[in-house]
Amino acid sequence: MNKSIEDIWKEIVDNLCSALGQEVVNLWIKPLNPVSFENNIFTVSVPNVFFSQWLEKNHHKEIEEMLAKIYSTQVTLAYKIQRDISPIVRTIEKTPVHSNTPMPSVIKDQINPKFTFERFVVGSSNRFATASAEAVAKNPGKQFNPLFIYGGVGLGKTHLLHAIGNSLKKGFPNFRILYVTCEKFASDFIEAIRFQDKMPVFKNKYRNLDCLLIDDIQFLVGKDSSQEEFFNLFNTLKDNGKQIVIASDRPQDKLEVEERLMSRFKWGNTVDIQKPDLETRIAILRKKAEEEQFSVPDDIVLFIAKKIKSNIRELEGSLLRVTSFIKFTNTPFTLDTVKTILKDVGDPDETITVTIDKIQETVANEYNLTVKDLKGKKRSAQIALPRQIAMYLARTMIVDISTTDIGDAFGGRDHTTVMHACNKIKLKLESDAYFVALINKIIKEIKTED
After folding, report:
1. Is 303 helix (H, G, I), strand (E, B) or coil?
2. 146 by DSSP, 3-state: which?
3. In the predicted model, what is the mean pLDDT of residues 24-29?
4. Which residues of 223-252 are buried (b: 16+ CB within 10 A; e: fewer)?
5. What is the pLDDT of residues 274-302, one digit of tens each?
6. What b/e sequence results for 348-358 when a residue is b if at least 16 CB atoms lie within 10 Å of its CB, and e otherwise?
7. Helix (H, G, I), strand (E, B), or coil: what is residue 214?
8. Looking at the predicted structure, is the pLDDT value of residue 97 above 60?
9. Which long-range contacts (CB under 8 A, 24 or more apart) does 376-379 make?
10. What's the angle, vertex CA 395, arms to CA 391 and CA 399, rounded to 5?
11. Consecutive H or E run containing 88
12. At what angle do helices 381-397 and 298-307 cross, to 10 degrees?
């Protein structure tokens, strides 16, 4: 073979980059260099033992298979450790937290000033989590330590972490506070391992904090060295009465981390955030519209709130998508327009097919009427209002239905009659809280499968 070991190693790195991504390769593979190929042993140099351990655990066999394919024979991958860092690590472990290592005059806390308690919409799905977060912000390191918040994607965990940070910055201006994702923490730790002179700075950065806000702790799973370091960090902060707030997409028992670390996560208070109910989603949309200084009709708010149930980010994003489209295209702000804009969003896994027959039957039962009454010619008040409600719900709950189709389903009424009914119900929803509750009750019954 005419290829040099440098060319062969470059080929290996390129293949790994395609499989693993540039970030992983830059962190773990690029620092390695080919040394020799003798007696079917391909030796590469590694900066320290952590690199060889990581490779042996993750991609050792994969690299050997690539080498075997290139050389057309079985090849063993070996490591030459450039530097034994064990004495350095032992020295660092013995270094006091408050050492003479120079620290930056200002630590960037990474806290987003927009995420405050005032801007967090509270509902039945997040009330206990919010109250716990506010308690931590008022009395850090005392009542709930650690505070462990878990819930699905886009439900507000990150917002609460930042809200705690913003509240602490006001109430305790001298506090050292840091918001960090678990991935950033692990990356900082690996960087400190790679460049040993950075380890004291790393430890001082994290262990001198008054409050650590760490997000997405589930990314510690499978990272043994990072788990060990976080375990030591947790103990240091807790022993010194410092506040720890942890966010996760799952409860502690499902994290698959070391048992001793899991037990510490359970020391304080554990709260969860559920998917918001309809009333909370409506409140979130109204608050977002108010912040954006954009007037959104109630029927459109209700439509979006019903269409997107499981993710607040998508909920708010859909509203911004709609309002931006309206602003820049000068399109009429109608429900039909919104349905078109948002036809590709929603929660398809939770969607229940709503028919106009089901709407008519449910509304009729609510008012002790028959569907025949709703379709008939009578215009008495006891029939007119339920008929208008049924038309409005058909308009808002069925995505691909026109006002003409609705009119036909109610005894051949015209487009104008349907629009008048929908507008009348919209106005009543804006001014009558009891009527809103009634409509929500009817909607819930319509969505209940027989």
Report:
1. helix
2. coil
3. 76
4. beebbebbbebbebbbeeebbbbbbbbeeb
5. 888 888 899 999 988 888 888 888 888 88
6. eeeeeebebeb
7. strand
8. no
9. 376/411, 377/411
10. 145
11. helix 86-94
12. 50
pLDDT tens per residue across span 168-200: 999 999 999 999 998 888 888 888 877 666 788
In three state form, how does the secondary structure of 149-208 look?
EEECCCCCHHHHHHHHHHHHHHHCCCCCEEEEEHHHHHHHHHHHHHCHHHHHHHHHHHHC
Q: Quick one: 388 exposed, middle or buried, by C-beta within 10 A (0-12, 13-18, 19+)?
A: buried
CA distance to 129, 222, 244, per residue, from 148 (Å): 9, 20, 9
| Rounded distance between C-alpha atoms, residue 168 and residue 134, angstroms | 10
| Burial grade of 94 (CB within 10 A; 0-12, 13-18, 19 or more) | exposed
For the stretch 184-190, contacts whose Cβ atoms lie closer than 8 Å and that sit 24 or more positions apart, written own/partner, are 185/214, 185/226, 185/230, 186/219, 186/220, 186/223, 186/226, 187/27, 189/225, 189/226, 189/229, 190/27, 190/50, 190/225, 190/226
**Rounded CA separation 109/38 (Å):** 51
CA dist., res. 312 & res. 326, Å (int): 21
Residue pair 5/34 in contact (Cβ under 8 Å)? The answer is yes
Question: With contact defined as beta carbons under 8 Å apart, do 25 and 16 qualify?
Answer: yes
Q: Which amino acid is at 443?
A: I
Supply the DSSP symbol for 250. S
- Integer Cα distance of 40 and 27 in angstroms: 27
Quick one: 25 exposed, middle or buried, by C-beta within 10 A (0-12, 13-18, 19+)? middle
DSSP characters for 398-410? -TT--HHHHHHHT
Instruction: Map tokens 């609460």 to a residue.
Output: 160
Structure tokens, 45: 């140099």
This prediction's pTM: 0.56
Helix (H, G, I), strand (E, B) or coil at 418: helix
φ and ψ at residue 248, rounded to 5 degrees = -145, 155
Tokens of 89: 């690590």
Lowest-confidence range among 4-13, 330-339, 371-380?
330-339
Spell out the residues 6+ positions from residue 139 whose beta carbon is closer than 8 angstroms to its own: none
